[in-house]
Design goal:
The chain is α+β, with helices and mostly antiparallel strands and about 625 residues long. It has 2 domains: about 110 residues, no CATH class; about 475 residues, Peptidase S8/S53 domain (Rossmann fold, 3-Layer(aba) Sandwich), CATH 3.40.50.200. About 25% of the residues lie in helices and about 20% in strands. It contains 15 helices and 31 strands. Strands 10, 11, 12, 13, 15, 18, 21, 26 and 30 form a 9-stranded mixed β-sheet that branches. A 4-stranded antiparallel β-sheet has the order 3-4-2-7, with helices on both faces. A 3-stranded antiparallel β-sheet has the order 1-5-6. Pfam families: Pro-kuma_activ (PF09286). Its cofactor is Ca(2+).
């Protein structure tokens, strides 16, 4: 049995896994109305304008990634996008005239699809037919949001589709989990503890440790057959990586990481773009550090653009809108998200059915941005989450007791959007033992779900000692986005499960149904591709806000790693890769798995609901990558 000290330490460590994630509950928890917010308080709002010819835009995107089509890999510039699909001069003039009447001024982005507006809360409330109040959440956090439903004036109703940023209530979660020290031994981060990569290439392929929990990008290169690209001198030269994040960071952290593993990188490669004042240096800064370290480590000669913004839904939209409108990054990733269902107005209407609501707010804003990115050839990746198949669990609590939420099967947003590549998580093979207990092993790369650890503790140390539900790679079925064209002929695609609802059991009022989720819905399946994400087989990160060198995991690593891989492919192909999903699903559907496949099926493990399979599964998507084979296939067309 574990010593009592170890039992207590283990319980505390696992509780800390979810520290900082409580903001996930802000959309569903009650808050005290403190009256009118300060009238003069400044705020930033993004107006998303309705796309013209959206059906033609979707058709063109498919053509850009269809071999043999005249438009194959012929992408639009931002100006071309604006001319064909952005708002007209007359529409923009109408919006600007209305804003001027309200004492506001809007900055039209180059894509002619978004207008950034800054004004006081009083001005913005008046412009959109509402009053904006201050609220105090149960945890003491202060925020503001409209007291009544905002209204668009008739003059704008046909032009503006989303007004994003009137509320700063919703905050997003970083999909990173620090490895609990009690669950694994720590390893010093020193050059003498590192082993040279057997496939080191000219230009500096990073060293690999071979130590679970202390892996580097060099280990990732070994896992997923990236080294043949380095052998050819492919290091991301000439490509640009974009990171969209909700915390600022110290670029010196990334430099320290690359130097620490002996990686030679392009100097002065990091450029920071602070959107709407930029994000804070806080507990999320380690997320930004790892995003830069991982993507830039796999592509050591790529440039890196970091778009950071405050952690609100409106600012997240604004950061993505700028990254895509700027059109400087060839590939973009984010490792932040929230459950898809938090975007539905139904969450504020007891008993409402998600399928009945059309107020999807930022889901629609993100969708338009990702459509633009796809037609411009920008590959976009998002972490799928770290709560397995039950995305609402992290930060909400779960169970049937008073003051707890139910745990419906849910997916993460923005990863659930059909025009983004959702990054899932696996556990690579390793052996483990805890406090002298029996040694067990993960023998094949598996779907990441910590029920394997739960079973280990329940079996060998008694049930009830620890509760790890539902830590694992995010995956499942969207209940808003329909099955996209590239998944229609993929074996293993699932429909949503029946009898799913988000219920809050109030200590006094009893249970309240906040959202009913449609069952048997033909929804977009998440994720698309997975890589190692289990903190037990995780990676080293240098983060000054976390005290230096830490061991972490989560799908936060997978999104930037795919971003770095995309930068390598951009150099190898001599042009942008474009929207990944139609291309990778085509390769998997036609060529399947095997020695020369670009993908490895993941047949073991589960994410607490979806099992590993020899085909697509919402546990890991179409599987993990063989990057060298993927590169070879893409260069054939």
């Amino acid at each position: 049995m574990l010593a009592k000290f170890h039992q207590k330490a283990l319980a505390v460590s696992c509780a800390l896994l979810f520290a900082g994630a409580a903001s996930a509950a802000q959309t569903t928890e009650s808050a005290t109305d403190m009256g009118l917010a300060a009238a003069s308080q400044p705020a930033n709002v993004t107006l998303m304008l309705k796309l013209r010819h959206e059906d033609q835009l979707e058709q063109l995107i498919r053509q850009t990634v269809t071999p043999g089509n005249p438009h194959y890999h012929r992408f639009l510039t931002t100006r071309q996008f604006a001319e064909r699909f952005g708002a007209t001069d007359a529409q923009i003039a109408g919006v600007q005239a209305y804003l001027k009447q309200q004492g506001l001024r809007g900055q039209v982005m180059d894509n002619r699809m978004a207008i950034r507006v800054q004004g006081s809360l009083a001005q913005l409330g008046q412009a959109f037919g509402t009053t904006i109040h201050a609220y105090k959440a149960d945890d003491g956090r202060m925020f503001h949001r409209p007291a009544t439903r905002p209204m668009l004036p008739a003059a704008l109703a046909g032009t503006v589709t989303v007004v994003s940023g009137l509320s700063n209530e919703r905050q997003f979660i970083s999909h990173r989990i620090k490895a609990p020290k009690v669950l694994m031994p720590t390893t010093s981060f020193a050059p003498q503890s590192l082993h040279p990569n057997l496939k080191a290439a000219a230009g500096g392929n990073p060293t690999a440790t071979g130590i679970p929990g202390s892996y580097t990008v060099g280990d990732a290169a070994n896992f997923y057959n990236i080294n043949p690209l380095y052998d050819r001198g492919i290091t991301g030269k000439g490509s640009t990586i974009g990171i969209v994040t909700l915390s600022n960071f110290d670029p010196a952290d990334a430099e320290a990481y690359w130097d620490g593993i002996g990686l030679v990188t392009k100097p002065h490669r990091i450029t920071q773009v602070h959107v709407n004042g930029g994000g804070a240096i806080n507990g999320g800064s380690g997320e930004t550090a790892l995003d830069v370290e991982q993507s830039g480590g796999l592509a050591p000669n790529a440039d890196i653009l970091v778009y950071d913004a405050p952690n609100t839904s409106g600012d997240f939209v604004a950061a993505f809108a700028q990254a895509v409108s700027d059109n400087l990054a060839d590939s973009i990733s984010t490792s932040w998200g929230l459950p898809e269902i938090y975007n539905f107005a139904a969450l504020n209407v007891a008993g409402a059915d998600v399928s009945d609501t059309t107020d999807v707010g930022d889901l629609r804003a993100f969708h338009q941005i990702f459509l633009e990115a796809a037609v411009q050839g920008q590959s976009v990746f998002a972490a799928s989450g770290d709560s397995g198949a039950y995305d609402t669990v992290r930060g909400l609590g779960h169970g049937d007791g008073p003051g707890e939420f139910s745990a419906p099967l849910t997916v993460d947003s923005p990863a659930s959007d059909p025009y983004i590549t959702a990054a899932g998580g696996t556990t690579v093979p390793f052996s483990y033992s805890f406090s002298g207990g029996p040694v067990e092993s993960i023998k094949r790369e598996s779907v990441w779900g910590w029920d394997y650890l739960q079973n280990y503790f329940d079996t060998h140390f008694g049930p009830g000692l620890i509760d790890l539900f539902s830590v694992g790679g995010g995956g499942g079925v969207s209940v808003y986005w329909e099955t996209p064209f590239y998944q229609r002929f993929t074996h293993g695609i699932r429909r949503s499960e029946k009898h799913q609802a988000l219920v809050y059991n109030d200590p006094e009022a009893g249970p309240t149904t906040l959202a009913k989720l449609p069952g048997h819905f033909r929804g977009r399946n998440v994720p698309d591709i997975s890589l190692n994400a289990d903190p037990e087989t995780g990676y080293l990160v240098v983060s000054s806000t976390d005290g230096g060198v830490v061991s972490s995991g989560g799908t936060s690593f997978v999104a930037p790693q795919l971003n770095g891989v995309s930068a390598l492919l951009t150099q190898s192909l001599g042009h942008r890769v474009g929207f990944w999903n139609p291309q990778v699903y085509f390769l998997q559907n036609v060529f399947g798995y095997g020695r020369y496949s670009a993908f490895n099926s993941v047949r073991d493990g589960d994410n607490w609901f979806y099992q590993g399979k020899p085909h697509y599964t919402p546990g890991t998507g179409i599987g993990t990558l063989d990057v060298a084979n993927l590169d070879a296939f893409l260069r054939l067309f």
